[in-house]
UniProtKB/TrEMBL annotation:
Coiled coil: none annotated. The keyword Flavoprotein applies. It comes from the Bacteria. This is FAD-dependent oxidoreductase. Residues 50-217, 358-423 form the FAD-binding domain. Gene3D superfamilies: FAD/NAD(P)-binding domain. The keyword Hydrolase does not apply. Residues 18-41 are annotated as: Disordered. Keywords: FAD, Flavoprotein, Monooxygenase, Oxidoreductase.
Amino acid sequence: MIIDVVYVQDSQIQLPRSCAGRQSDAERGANSSAEPVPDVPEEANVSSFHVLIAGGGIGGLCLAQGLRKAGVSCTVYESAPGVVLTGYRLHMNGAGGRALQQCLPEHLFELYMQTSRTTPRREVMVILDHQARELGSRPHIGPPNDPDRPHTAVNRRTLRQIMNVGLEDVVQFGRAVRAYETDTDGVRVLLDDGTTAVGDVLVGADGINSVVRKQLLPDVSIVETETRALYSIAPLTAELAAGLPEALFDGFACASGPNGALFAYGAYQPRRPIAEAVAELAPAASIDPVDPYLMVNLGLPPATAPNWGDVPDLWRSSAQTLHSVMRTAVEGWHPALVGLVEHVDPTTIFPVAIRHLQPADPWPAGRVTLIGDAVHAMPPSFGSGANTALRDAAALSRVLAQAARGDRPVVEAVAQYESEMRAEVFPILRASADPRALDPNFLPDDVLAANR
């Protein structure tokens, strides 16, 4: 017997390399009463193939939905006690939208579409100066969008809640993967409660601090950009909207001033009231109503603070102090942009450290792989983090379904996914981390943009 030894939180964990079987007894019992997935052909069901997913964020939930739709068994281990509700607006493009269409049941995809943002006049990123004068614009990246009902933007919490519908027997909240070991037959994971689970494949969807990546690709480093940000929202009333520059209602807008502060703006106005759409399309689902808002994010690059005063420790400051930081940042700006910051709800402000991963050199494929931020966490410069995670989930669910049916070896399927992911997503990671990322003329040739 081979023993793998890994170190987690200063304790030595020994995992016997024996992965016979595919699910723990508890998991087999939990899944035995699961309802069959609608609209999945009977021949697609392969009960003996099981996928373990570490992380129940956007990528992990989308992957679980795609696997279930294809008739492939899976379990999601999410450390949080429930669906994570933090975060605001997410930009969506054709890649992310089509991934959701592939993975979600039809009624949940329609719910996503109806609760997405209304179609803006221009699907571009607009660059403004601090007096709200337009300096340029850049097309959003990604494949061509739907011409009739384009993918625009979603509320992050709403999307997570939609993707959790129907996965009650799949997602195990309050349980996290701490380590894994593999053999030629499968994967065994050690969970933080001391129990283990086994499956055919392990997918790390556990974010930039991924435990799975740290074991699989220990040399991949997290880059601390030293840029800090404050994310917030301002309730979008008709009165507020009437006084704002029209460019703030395009696809996305950024404004910077001579003091070095950078603001990013994004509107969220659902095509249909969320409660109304849920009542029709998923009446039993627990999905919170969300009123229209404008996301207002302040970015503080490391060199900016000396230009406009001392910045407190953002993680130890009160909501009122954080709001004061935002107010200071727009002193002398266009009155409409100053007024927008005044309308920010202080209780919605939270700090973020902007970090990203270095693109990993190619690695040998196996029964453990990664999706989303676990493998290509990127700055928000191109609004692609969620879209690339969804893209990964859809691509991986396709090839794993092929492996589950016995159409191809597991490792071959994973190798195809990883090769295509590196080719398609790593250029976006590199572009997003480039210092020129907010230049409207910066759009590398290896990054797909339909309206270049």
